[in-house]
Every structure is written in structure tokens, then in C-alpha cells.
Amino acid sequence: MRHVSILALHEATMTSIDSSQQLLNRANDFLKYQKKAGFYTVEIVGAEKNIKLNQGLYTISVNKTIDEVKKTDVIIIPLLCGNFSKAIQENKKYCDWVISQYYNGAEIVCLCVGSFFLASTGLLKNKKCAIHWAAKDEFKAMFSDVNLVDDKIITDESGIYTCAGGYSYLNLLLYLIEKHLGKEMSILASKMFEIDIERKSQNPFIIFIGQKKHTDKEVLCAQEFIENSPANIFTVEDICSKFSVGRRTFERRFKKCTGNSIVEYIQRVKVEFAKTQLESDRKSINEIIYEVGYNNIDAFRKVFKRYTDLSPIDYRKRFIRR
User: Fold this and answer.
1) The HTH araC/xylS-type domain covers which part of the protein (predicted)?
2) What's the CATH number where 224 sits?
3) Which of 26, 81, 130, 221 has the smallest set of CB atoms within 10 Å of its CB?
């Protein structure tokens, strides 16, 4: 048996709390159908008996307060919404309890941007953490000592599990069930809740937004130039010449400010432009590839798949707007 504490954090979303208890309790039902004992004792736990969630939109009554739970086996940290810095401050009273339970053997299952709270406890220091692509830059600015992973939706390290993407936390819950009860039970849960168990990456869903929260004016101008010219063909030398800067120094500055090399930035802008074209069925795939400045179709397909995990044709099949 595993005792599960789903934390009712201030600024948490009701859906992530409810989905967690629904999935784990349903796993117990599956075991009972097989004439086996239930595995999870699931409780919603809070700092007070009644907690306001989702910026005050909901109020939840918890099963127990953290003072009443002396020992738990699994802690589930739900999604947070709104201002992350504010949410961290409002939930400081949970920190000591979470840290104590972890060092007493509890696993921590962190859903999406609930990782902002978890990182504030210090338990993610030098550990891997997946994060939603839209929150990556803000997270890195606040917690530079965390090993951020943005190419997978699940991380598993030292009894701490994290996930990226809004509802990909459902995949993390399936992963937890598989760890505890085996693949067969995880597959059964995925079928009953109709969750795509094979999701491994958030790359197909990422919308590339260049990092511009820096003060290097020449880098900002270069970013805008690249973004305003997705169909043009130019080299790194062309950009450095346009802004009258030395290549080696400027490439170093560009990478430091944006997290991408100049070549990577150009590629990502072209891929993002191609994605918007692929979502319409007005042009053929080859027309779109030529339009973004590639004469070598195979070369562009490789670049496209590197950033999306999909070929152009598979991307169109998944996201086309009819």
C-alpha cells in the first residue's frame, strides 16, 4: 500500500488535483476487479482545512492538513496558475513538510509548472526537471541551478518525477502507475481514460518564441531581422556584416542572450514559418520548403524533424486546419 498526499496548494488548478485522485483511485478499482487489494490510499492534503484554488475561483475541503500527516509515501504537487513568484510565497508553509517527507522516503510527483514550487524548496538543485516550453525562460531565470530538460515530457531522478506541458501530467501519472503496478495496469488506465501513452516529447507542440529578455541591442536587432525574414536566404556572415560586428564575438553574445546559435535561430524561425504554412492545405510541402529558402528538400526535412520530432507530412496530418 502507498499513501498518496495530493497537495492543495494555493493557486493550484482544480483539474490537476481531481485528475490525480481520479486516476489513482481508478487503479485501485482495476485491482479490485482482478480480486486484488487496492494499492493507493489517496488523500488531498492542505495547510488549512479549506483552500482557495485557481486564483480564488474554487475552494476545496481537504481530507487532512499537513500537520495531521506524519508519514506519506507519495507527494503529488499540482499545476500552479497565475503569478509563479506569488504562488511560491503563498505556499512557503508547505516547504518544510515536503522536504522532511522526501528525506523520510517519500516520492515526489510534480505536475508541469508545479515545479516552480518544488524548485523553491531546493530539492531540484542539480537535478533534472522538465518544464512547459512557454515557462522555460522564466524558470531558468529563477532557478539557474536546476538541470532543465526541454526535449522530454517526463524526468525521473532520485525519487522525484517531473513533467512538461499542460495536460502531459496525465502521462506522468500513467508513468507512476507503471512504476508501482506494472505496464499492464498503466495500459489499462490509458485505455480507460483515453490518454496517449506513447507521448514522449513536447517538441511537436512547441511554438518558438525567441528569448528577448536581455539588454544586448545588437542581438535584439539581429533577432528581429531574422524573424522578419523567414523566407530570405542569408548566412551568419551576412548578419554580422549587416550589424558591423565580428563573427566570433557576436556568435558568443547571441548564444548567451538567446540560448541558440545564430544558425539554430535561423533554422527555428524557418521551421516555425513552415509550420504555419503546413497547417493550411493551400500549398504543397515542397512549395513550402522552397519558400523558406531551402533548395535541398531532404536537408530541410532533417532540420524540421530535429525541432518537432515529426516529418513535414506528419506535422501537416496532425495539425492541418480544414
Assistant:
1) 220-318
2) 1.10.10.60
3) 221
Say if residues 294 and 302 touch (Cβ distance below 8 Å): no
Alpha-carbon Rg for the chain in angstroms: 23
Residue 169 · residue 163 · CB < 8 Å: yes
**Longest Cα separation, the chain:** 74
Q: Are residues 98 and 28 in the same domain?
A: yes
Strand pairing partners for 4? 42, 74
pLDDT(167) > 90: no
Question: Within this chain, do residues 81 and 229 fall inside the same structural domain, yes or no?
Answer: no
- Mean per-residue pLDDT over the chain, rounded: 93
User: Which helix (H) or strand (E) element contains residue 35?
Assistant: none
Is the domain of 158 the same as that of 236?
Answer: no
Q: Which domain holds residue 27?
A: 2-202
182 within domain boundaries: yes
